[in-house]
């Protein structure tokens, strides 16, 4: 009965409530999924913590409450938890989410009901294991979006259920084999699963979600069938306990008409694209390590001198929290050739013809964005799933080269040279172009991921009718 009211109260279109873990690497894919669903005719409310809400209002100009923005046949709107937490410590955040999150989310659900906008389906993400339970207690079905790769899902799944032994962390020669995946060294598996991992609260939240993931009716994944078919098929063969079928809906990239709603938590520099316009095709090195990786002062200096020593123009994202680490006089020394910005409109940058390669930390969003744009990489992973993603980009897709720690300026220069002009650069570009075409086809009308979103939307509509 609740779902019947849901459809009726929003003028016939069922209302979905998304709840997103407070991090840029989660906001982007969740928001892009929200857009894909809204474009197919549903009303979608995007939510996260109050602190994320404040940042999205400030940096991306989103407006809270109201009817939201029309998108395709539906609408997208924003409303946030009233959880009152604005700290930055990860362990404190995880504790806070665990204790205050469920009640704040239940209140947000009740707020929708009271406003005549009852929720037909909740869409959560795996770092918030309690969202599915809160929805179930209110009689509402759930979907979750796994924001990392199917390969990483498989690694977590096998580990959490004790289906695989990882080699000892100091045995770099040992290899781990899992169905559908290449043989991996311990440096290729998500570092959150290794004994040395310092982020235990995060690991516990992920493991908890993996244990309870079958509570969700739909398990979406930000990937596409053609990219990870082997591992998706192999997961179907795992008998005990059987994993839920993964439903690829990616790559969750910005599509035409999407740009009106963005989820940047730092305001993107507006002059990047104009600056790129002044450069010839395939001349610029784009460097960015995403929203959370922090380099030491020494590493920032090596990166700075390394980029400068390539002799190529470069666009480098140095977030405001690291700006003070730039070597003295560096900006003046590279003026005209190097542009350093606090945040870029990354997807617009990657599809710009002037970009020659992407020096990336291989967060899964950056990985998929560079695959979709067809840009070769210099892979410089730091932790978590980035290690697996780097292996995937370099060894599986043949789209680039690795840059290994400890970071040295000469190695930065050599890696950029190899990716742009080395003997294998042409093959990397061809591989990147082929994967770009496949990625775009998956999300185009009638593509594999588009059909998966369509089927979900139809099912929600049918249940709510
Ligand atoms: C985090 C984890 O680090 C990552 O490993 C995991 O897969 C997702 O969560 P993050 O480190 O921020 O994410 O990296 P990434 O997944 O690449 O996401 C960053 C997002 O910010 C991308 O969508 C990228 O386009 C965007 N971005 C980054 C910008 O728009 N501008 C920038 O200047 C930098």
UniProtKB/TrEMBL annotation:
UniProt entry keywords in alphabetical sequence: Glycosyltransferase, Transferase
Source superkingdom: Eukaryota
EC number: 2.4.1.-
SUPFAM superfamilies: UDP-Glycosyltransferase/glycogen phosphorylase
A Pfam family per the record: UDPGT
Gene3D superfamilies in the cross-refs: Glycogen Phosphorylase B (3.40.50.2000)
Top class in the EC scheme: transferase
Molecular function as annotated in GO: quercetin 3-O-glucosyltransferase activity; quercetin 7-O-glucosyltransferase activity
Family: Belongs to the UDP-glycosyltransferase family.
PANTHER family per UniProt: GLUCOSYL/GLUCURONOSYL TRANSFERASES (PTHR11926), UDP-GLYCOSYLTRANSFERASE 84A1 (PTHR11926:SF986)
Protein name: Glycosyltransferase
